């Protein structure tokens, strides 16, 4: 997982930003699927 992505996730979690966490998760899974 890229460092910038981890930072985004941490910030979203700390701010309890559920929408952002969900969106980042979807982006990440999409990225994993595409790269494999």
Could you walk me through the main structural features you see in this protein, from its secondary elements to its overall organization?
It is a single chain. The chain has helices at 3-14, 18-35. It is mainly α and 36 residues long. It has one domain (3-35). Helix 1 (3-14) runs antiparallel to helix 2 (18-35). The mean pLDDT is 87. This is Cortex morphogenetic protein CmpA. InterPro entries: CmpA (IPR047764). Pfam families: spore_CmpA.
What fraction of residues sit in β-strands?
under 5%
Give a short account of the largest sheet: none
Shape: flat
Q: What is the end-to-end distance?
A: 14 Å
Percent helix: over 70%
Q: Detail the poorly predicted runs.
A: none
Structurally, how many domains make up the residues?
1
Oligomer: single chain
* Helix count from the secondary structure assignment: 2
- Which structural class is indicated by helix and strand composition? mainly alpha
The rounded Rg comes to 10 Å
Give the total of beta strands: 0
Overall residue-averaged pLDDT value: 87
User: Can you write the helix and strand succession as a string?
Assistant: HH
């Amino acid at each position: 997982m890229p460092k910038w992505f981890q930072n985004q996730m941490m910030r979203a979690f700390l701010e309890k930003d559920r929408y952002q966490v969900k969106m980042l998760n979807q982006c990440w899974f999409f990225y994993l699927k595409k790269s494999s």
